[in-house]
Design goal:
2 strands, 434 Repressor (Amino-terminal Domain), two-stranded antiparallel ribbon, mainly alpha, 128 residues, elongated
């Protein structure tokens, strides 16, 4: 008896474009922070190859994983979706919210978080 042919799930072009755009934003933000794929992968408990697949849009990213990544990259999850339903963003600057900062599992005081965010903001203006 002949086996039925395997069916491959076909993703729409729009969905593939969305996954590639999200992956590109992960890559952009990771590089802005000076992180390697290996470093990000280590923080997520993944292989660097999985990060490559996320960044190229080859593998889908679950909502939970995207939330984890956004926290590690100190951005709001909405960063990955801003402007995707319109024309591409014209600005190369990254807009991000002040994250809840954790240090070795310890929650930092809101004033300390603000001080760190201010320091990073000032430093980023002087990087050439």
């Amino acid at each position: 008896m002949k086996k039925p042919a395997k069916t491959k799930t076909v993703r729409s072009a729009a969905l593939q474009d969305l996954e590639k755009a999200i992956g590109a934003r992960i890559r952009k933000r990771r590089m802005e922070l000076g992180l390697t794929q290996i470093q990000l992968a280590g923080k997520l408990g993944l292989s660097y190859q999985q990060i490559q697949k996320y960044e190229t849009g080859l593998n889908r990213i679950s909502a939970g994983r995207l939330h984890q990544i956004s926290r590690l990259l100190f951005i709001d999850t909405s960063y990955f979706f801003k402007g995707l339903d319109r024309t591409p963003e014209s600005s190369s600057k990254t807009n991000f919210k002040i994250p809840v900062i954790y240090l070795e599992g310890m929650h930092l005081d809101k004033n300390v978080q603000q001080a760190i965010a201010n320091l990073v903001s000032v430093m980023s203006k002087h990087i050439h």
